[in-house]
Amino acid sequence: MDLKYKASKIKAVVFDVDGVMTDGSLTFDENGVEYKTFNAKDGQGIVMLNRAGFVTAIITARENGTVRHRFNNLGMTKLYEGQKNKIAALNAFMEEFNLKPEEIAYMGDDLPDICVLKTVGLACAPADAVCEVLETAEFICKKNGGRGAVREMCDFILKSTGKYELMMEKFFIK
Q1: N or C: which end of the chain has fewer CB within 10 A?
Q2: Helix, strand or coil for residue 157?
Q3: In angstroms, rounded to a whole number, what is the distance separating the alpha carbons of residues 120 and 46?
Q4: What is the Cα–Cα distance from 23 to 45, expressed in whole angstroms?
Q5: CATH no. of 3-172
Q6: What pLDDT shows up at residue 123?
Q7: What is the pTM of this model?
């Protein structure tokens, strides 16, 4: 099926964090406090999705205050932390927001994401995802995780749904 057509049916966009919203690096200080670096352009893509009316969410296996801060800062809809079973989180998300799998896009980069990628309507991956994810994903970004892949996916969905120009006119072009 044509990817633009599949993307045109999307109502919700869900992301993994490490390796997707970040480059996958884990930085700790001497007290064990974890730090993450996020890409501003990726964040702007998520903000545009929110403003266009998409439901946005994070499903991550880790628990981290930096992720909670980024989630809140971007105005995202739902955060699932500490999710070792990501498909259970996806099912809860679909139930809470009355969504069908084909209405959801997901971006993941590693083995725990494959179960979700096989379930959703638009399976996406950054260019530097592991081989098994790249074999599963339908939309593979040209950019790496934490380096613009999220924005690439957001722009593709916004353009495929006809909402990209509206975002440009409404929020950015005067």
Answers
A1: C
A2: helix
A3: 18
A4: 17
A5: 3.40.50.1000
A6: 98
A7: 0.94
